[in-house]
Amino acid sequence: MRCLSCRRLSFSLLCSVCREHYLKPEPRIRKLETGLEVISFYAYDEIEPFLLTKHLPHGWFIYRILAKEAFKALSQTKRTTFAIPVDDDPSGGYSHTAILAKGLKRYGYRPLFGRLHAQNRLSYSGQPLAFRVQNPRDFRYTGPTNIDAVLVDDIITTGLTLKEAHGRLLQHGVDLLGAFVLADVDRA
């Protein structure tokens, strides 16, 4: 097969040269107004072509690579901490946020699949802030209470999704220690 990025022959969809060149994580923290600290590993424009594969059949494989490469920057957690993927709905064949949460297992996080779902099924992709504010996700949480957790998502733009998820989890006694996202749109 050929590398999706450079088109060289490769045993993987992203060759080792491209992984080394494009996927060196540089964690940065963005603090939301709610106090939630969001750790991003890349600027959005650095990995945009890889992120957009979530809409393609082979996206699950690319997201596994992204999780593996990004989370190399993490250390092992010392306490029981759950990883809650944001709206891990597999209706498109797989859930990219579930893949990311599963990638955190090697660092001691316990994925909590299928517990935080948006009731509003509108697509927020490319929509302006006003649209997002007028159409909240309306999350439903069905997981355990009184736990330590991190939120997991692929991209942060305005931060509204993570703020809304944070609020819902607080209502259920979840101590949210932070959030991990692959990319931040506002990161320079």
TrEMBL record:
Quote the InterPro entries the UniProt record gives: PRTase-like (IPR029057), PRTase_dom (IPR000836)
- Sorted alphabetically, which keywords does the UniProt record give? Glycosyltransferase, Transferase
Q: Name one GO molecular function term.
A: glycosyltransferase activity
Q: What is this protein called?
A: Phosphoribosyltransferase
Give the organism, scientific name. Hydrogenimonas cancrithermarum
Q: Mind giving the lineage of the organism this protein is from?
A: Bacteria, Pseudomonadati, Campylobacterota, Epsilonproteobacteria, Campylobacterales
